[in-house]
Amino acid sequence: MTVTAAPRSAEARFPTGDAVANITLHLEEVAANHPDRPAIITTQGQLTFRELLDAADQIGRGLLASGIERGMHTVLLVSPGLDFFALAFGMFRAGVVPVIIDPGIDRAALKQCIAESEPEAFIGVPRAHLGRILFGWGRETTRTLVTAGRRFGWGGYTLDQIKAAGAQRPPLTVDTRANETAAIVFTSGSTGIPKGVIYQHGNLHAQIPMLRETYGFQPGEVDLPTFPMFALFDPGLGMTSVIPDMDFTRPADVDPEMILDLARRYEATNMFGSPALLNTVSRHGKAFPASMKRVVSAGAPVPAETLERMQAILPDDARIWTPYGATEALPVAYINSDAILAETAEKTRQGAGVCIGYPVEHADVRVITITDEAIDVWDDSLEVPSGTVGEITVFSPTSTVGYYNRDEKTRLAKIRGPQGEIIHRMGDLAYFDEQGRLWYCGRKSHRVQTASGTLFTIQVEQVFNTHPAVYRTALVGVGETPVLLVELEKHAADADRAMVIAGLETIGAQHDHTRSIETFLFHPGFPVDIRHNSKIFREKLGPWAAEQLGR
Question: Cα–Cα distance between 545 and 551 in angstroms, integer?
Fold first, then answer.
């Protein structure tokens, strides 16, 4: 059934409080202006913007008709494809709250995440339902089931039945409020068990104009997103999403030729990829088509060597953007490959940290004194001078209000501002330079405190990463001893370890903040996050290092 309601303009780009806000209002505008343009292209087929809006509206109506009510927490474990996008937008339109978790995370962590989110409904592919039954996911709270695909003996509805039910009801009146919960999106878990970030409709609604203004996304562009969550922004931006056929939990193992083929076939103008994916694609060495004008990479710092290789296979006028942000607040700061390769990369190699650029417009970004304690109320005395390393804080229309069922984590991550606003503590350490740019130094929880002072992971690791045999390093503390773990490049796997250590000692001796590091351990392959394959799980490496050292 076609949605006949007149499209509504998102009158306020950043609605707050009781104002109407919903990311699908942006989709309505795009569908009205470009109804026949492809919105989602997958190996299953494609949907135009009008078809996506119609499918989302029909699913939203069907969910409400089947007892999944507005505000109800609903696990969404469906593979990236046409059904996933129609379901996600249908849930947003109906005010149903999707619970979004990386499916590849540890089984015990997945069960805990589902339990914490207290879902009353579960939408999943058959394999997800099998896991729900075998491992008890959401057993205590779930009462409504929907299967995207063939349903076996577990009851509930099929997605086809949901669509059929929706076809019998009138189009939705979308009136969700800015301060109403829109989704619970779990973090990647790089610093422990993933946390469920509470997204309000105002946050999602505001991300569209903030992304558009920061990166210049235009309606009619074609995006090649290798991270499905990023693709959810595309329809609101008026961009066509070409969804690659890949294992999204293993972006580092992507087939570069497949990515390049899609970019050529659909004349992609934008690609989103993690640093690990860019590393794989850039080493392939084949050029992107002339249509490509922008690559966006996030999840962890992108090594300058990866940027150099990637820039070499892009058109001359294309740029690589490395935005800074987090699940809790995105975007926060921006910089592109021009500035990095021309200026900041060399400072990074010397231990200055990684430049993450200028704060985006509409974001109030500050750096405060490092503390592991909660800060209940903002005070200007918390701020540190430029050049001093501290914790990044941000208040913007996309800053989220807290974590679901994690009151203590929320208290540690949020500060109440002078007007009652919620200021988010990023948990990342950085400093402002004289130009007003942020330089990232590492996670607060990863800093290594020694008898001679505090070491910041990124500042230390980037120095040692200059060794030609080294792929990456990770600094951990064993007691008060700083230990550098080393992962070698594949071509250097058989290198003389004593020679490599001697080289690392020579490099470390050249800088005051690395001179004290005398313990080096080789690791076969760092554990990394499922989402980006780029964030190093230092919490796992610390105990490993202690065991290797017999402590």
Answer: 9
Which residue type does 89 have?
F
Beta bridge partners of 364: 395
At position 161, the amino acid (one-letter code) is Q
- Taking residue 185's Cβ as centre, other Cβ atoms within 10 Å add up to 23
In the chain the domains, ranked by start, together with CATH numbers, are 23-203 (3.40.50.980), 447-548 (3.30.300.30)
Select from 152, 148, 182 the least CA-distant residue to 79.
Answer: 148
Residue pair 50/31 in contact (Cβ under 8 Å)? The answer is: yes
- As a whole number of angstroms, the distance between CA 518 and CA 400 comes to 41
CB 389 within 8 A of CB 429: yes
For residues 438 and 333, the answer to whether their CB atoms sit within 8 Å is: yes
Q: CA 529 to CA 105: how far, in whole Å? A: 8
| Residues 224 and 242 sit within 8 Å (Cβ to Cβ) | yes
The phi, psi pair for 322, rounded to 5°, reads -120, 80
Indicate the helix (H) or strand (E) that contains 390.
Answer: strand 390-395
Query: What gap in Å lies between CA 17 and CA 296, rounded to an integer?
Result: 32
Residue-wise pLDDT for 64-98, tens only, equals 999 999 999 999 999 999 999 999 999 999 999 99
What's the sign of the alpha-carbon dihedral 177, 180, 182, 188?
positive
CB atoms within 10 A of CB 79: 18
pLDDT, tens only, 93-139: 999 999 999 877 888 999 999 999 999 999 999 999 999 999 999 99
Q: Read off the tokens for 461.
A: 């690791």
CA 541 to chain centre: 22
* Number of C-beta neighbours around residue 323 at 10 A: 21
DSSP string covering 307-330: HHHHHHTS-TT-EEE--EEETTEE
* pLDDT tens by residue, 283-315: 999 999 999 999 999 988 899 999 999 999 999
SS3 474: strand
CB atoms within 10 A of CB 17: 9
At 379, give phi and psi (nearest 5°). Answer: -145, 135
User: Which residues, listed in sequence order, are joined to residue 271 by a DSSP beta bridge?
Assistant: 224, 295
CA–CA separation, 251 and 353 (whole Å): 25
